[in-house]
Amino acid sequence: MKRREFIKVSGMLAGAGALGGLPGTLFAKDKVSFKFDSYVSETAGPSWLDRWFLSELEKRSGGVVKARRYWSASLNKVGEHLPAVRDNTSEMSLISPGYYQADLPVTRGLEWYFRMNRADALLQVCRDVYAEFEPLRTEWEKRHRAKVMYWTNWNYAPLITRKPIQSLEDIKGKRIRGYGVATDVIERLGGTAVPMAAPEVYTALERGVLDGVYGFDFITAVSYKLHEIAPHFTDIGDGPHGPAATVINVDAWEAFPESVKANCNEIVEEIYGGQYSAIMNQALQDYVKKATAEGVKFHVLDDAQKQAAKTLIQPAQVNSWVDKVAKPAGIDGARMQALIDQAIARHDPKGTLLRPSEIANKT
Q1: Phi first, then psi: what are they for 94, rounded to 5°?
Q2: Which keywords accompany this UniProt record (predicted)?
């Protein structure tokens, strides 16, 4: 029985000692060794992209780069990764903003539901806003000394329940574990949001403490075997889930040989150019097949119910961030959200990554 495991941050150390902030210069002939640390397991949603990036970097560097991988919070505890990257004690890490709400107020402006359709498009939206909205870059690069290597996300997060959900009425009163802004969705739809550490979720479902789970991406939920207790996976029309970023300490990045930087940039362009979609499409296809064989029942709310849910969530969710987070922090929230709207209009119609329920219905 698998349990969801949490992140640890990564670090990048140069063979010549330059990455730890020590004097010295790395050259292509030097070995570059660094730690990549993640709070989740290597089979969790974003880990598929991270594993591909690290493997490609090692391969394309011709043996110069060696990435030491630390999965499942084996190096740092959950919540320690952002400061570890900032202080260059761990140089590279996956950061999920929901764990750093006080530290990443601008980035929280990228977290919402019921606003777009495709996870591969969300990747592009985050990239554009990072380039266009200077306070977002400042938050990462100056406040936390972390360069965003590439944006990622947790693809799709169905509502996972012990009993089938056929309408919004069925959600009312249900005790549902949420994460980040997912808790807001649960409450606005009439459920009771239950804060709970991910490793406790399976047992809580098993004991009846929870009626369901929201905010677990599909791949992680299946690998964590939540469907053994809660087999009903419902698409409520919420769109992609959980923007996140894989980041590197800015000093560690500057200490990289130019050839390694070029390798990184080349791989990142491929991620945005379609590799994310290719990797996640195959992973979702495989996990839908696995889930179906293991008894998952896929449901989709009808269009009227989806629209009713959207009306309850938006624009209230975005306006809440503008009023309660952006304004007190001196962030021009309206401008950021306008840039997001423009990016969604550019990219969402081009998104192709199917939701698990769509894949299931095609097989």
Answers
A1: -85, 130
A2: Signal
CA distance 84 to 249: 9
Helical packing angle, 119-132 and 333-347, nearest 10°: 140
Structure tokens at 178: 């949420």
CA distances to 83, 89, 264, 298, 324 from 18, in Å:
20, 13, 18, 51, 42
Per-residue confidence at 180, pLDDT binned at 50, 70, 90? confident
Stated pTM of the model: 0.89
In a domain, 85, yes or no: yes
Quote the pLDDT of residue 98: 87
Is position 320 within any domain? no
Which three-class secondary structure string do you get for the chain?
CCCCCCECCCCEEECCCCCCCCCCCCCCCCCEEEEEECECCCCCCCHHHHHHHHHHHHHHCCCCEEEEEECCCCCCCCCCHHHHHHCCCCCEEEECHHHCCCCCCCHHHHCCCCCCCCHHHHHHHHHHHHHHCHHHHHHHHHHCCEEEEEEEECCCCCEEECCCCCCHHHHCCCEEECCCCHHHHHHHCCCEEECCCHHHHHHHHHHCCCCEECCCCHHHHHHCCHHHCCCEEEECCCCCCCEEEEEEEHHHHHHCCHHHHHHHHHHHHHHHHHHHHHHHHHHHHHHHHHHHHCCCEEEECCHHHHHHHHHHHCCHHHHHHHHHHHCCCCCCHHHHHHHHHHHHHHHHHHCCCCCHHHHHHHC
Determine which of 20-29, 189-198, 287-296 has the lowest per-residue pLDDT on average. Answer: 20-29
Count structural domains, the chain.
1
Give the β-pairing of 243-249 and 92-95. Answer: antiparallel
Q: Per the domain annotation, does 293 fall within a domain? A: no
Mean pLDDT, range 267-284, rounded to an integer: 97
Range of the domain at 250: 32-155+242-284
Confirm whether 294 is domain-assigned: no
CATH number at residue 67: 3.40.190.170
